[in-house]
Design brief:
GO terms for molecular function: ATP binding; phosphorelay sensor kinase activity. Its EC number is 2.7.13.3. It holds the Pfam family HisKA. The chain is about 40% helix and about 25% strand. The protein has a six-stranded antiparallel sheet. Strands 2-1-5-4-3 form a five-stranded antiparallel sheet, sandwiched between helices. A five-stranded mixed sheet has the order 13-15-16-18-17, covered by helices on one side. The protein binds adenosine-5'-triphosphate and magnesium ion (MG). Adenosine-5'-triphosphate binds next to α12 and α14. Magnesium ion (MG) binds next to α12.
Amino acid sequence: MKFILAKRRDINMLSRHLSQLEPFQDCGEQIDQAKFSSRILNHISECALLTDQNGIILNFNEQSKQYFEMRAGIKIYTYLKPEHVEWLKSCMMNNKADEREIQLLFVDSDHECTCEFIPVTGEERFILIFKDINKGPEDEIFTTIFDKAIHGLMLINANGSVVRSNLFANKLLNLQNGRKVNIYRLLDEYETEKNIPGFDQQFAPQATENIVSDVIKIRSHYFEFTKVNEISQGYDLIVIRDISEVVEYMRRVDHQDTLKVVGQLAAGIAHEIRNPMTSLKGFIQLLEPNLKDHQKMYFEVINSELKRIETIMTEFLMLAKPKNTVFEKINLTRVLADTVDMMKPQAILHDVDIKFNARQSEHLTFGDANRLKQVFINLIKNALEAMPDKGEIFVSVETSGNQHLISVKDNGCGIPEEKLNKLNEPFFTTKVNGTGLGLPVSLKIIEEHQGTVNVISRLYEGTEFKIGLPLME
Ligand SMILES: Nc1ncnc2c1ncn2[C@@H]1O[C@H](COP(=O)(O)OP(=O)(O)OP(=O)(O)O)[C@@H](O)[C@H]1O
Ligand SMILES: [Mg+2]
């Protein structure tokens, strides 16, 4: 009883707010009357609507739309039995709050409910609140669970219009209660993520399965939208889950799987290729002294091709089974200076200038100098290949916070955004003679050194690889 009184007091207060609408408008304030009454009606947790003195429905809340299929502009009397119409008309005449049990009549169903009649103070408008008699307290509990669920929930009708959405969904998709939105049109604005291992179902209105899902990227998070068809007659439910962490994990696992396959492949064929290669190399050396001048060119080609096969095999094996790395105290300034010196002749051939800048003469870390050299060679080689005619490469090392930061920067062709996440895929290459193993091997080496790699690239402007390596303890 106490609860009902308190509720009645609140509604009276709301109705007073509603009556203050006109004076505000007189003041010239731009208040949208329908919007204002919607806000008030939506504060009422039961089905509530606003009528004028002729019983014409002016506005109603979300609950009414959902449960009673109300329509504005129609007389409320259409939905009532004659004796209830009489009662309502007399309430309007007396302009006094009242309550009674009535029956709401719809085309395919009737609802027994209590109708609370509240006149809006100083207005010829009335609030009617309908409470389903057969509705137990669990409905209120379910409503709260729906609204406050930790995942997004949306009820949509057959056309895809959002009938009801909870706080999570409202916040994510900037939905506002009372504003009609079509979910399919809304989701068109966002990017759909394909090729996520483990998520391959389609989220489409015409899909026939009972449950379909899709992953959509919204503000750099991945959300799984799952549609449960016909959760209740004419309505589908959409559940939205933030699966950013899962996607990240799945991608990592998938990448590891690829590496494993490459590894097994490498281990399997390494012997098969290396043995005949050793014989080939031996025979070719035997032939060399007897070669005529015009044959020497072919000899060079055969030799360099054999070397290339050897390099590919070595890199292949590196992915499969890293060599026993020798970790020791090393000076990155030294390692980088040596690498830059080594790459200078190649750079001159490309008409590229390499600049090296070390903040200090010593940047000490714990690592394998030869393996790290291999990383820096790969990065400088890529930079050179990104600038076929002229350019500059900046190599630098400095200490920042708790790590050494190494940067290899070029002003070459840059990498298109959609290709950036392919860089650590073995065999991803855009070059005629590339193997696409340079970066995966380099990233693996950095990973073994507990380091990090960041890539910043702008198409036609250049690329910077930033490597972080731990300081020597
Ligand atoms: N500095 C860069 N500028 C522009 N594109 C780059 C750069 N570094 C890497 N890439 C792109 O990344 C791809 C993969 O590089 P990665 O070093 O793994 O293989 P690759 O250079 O193609 O072949 P390999 O290194 O085995 O000779 C390259 O083909 C290129 O498209
Ligand atoms: Mg390369």
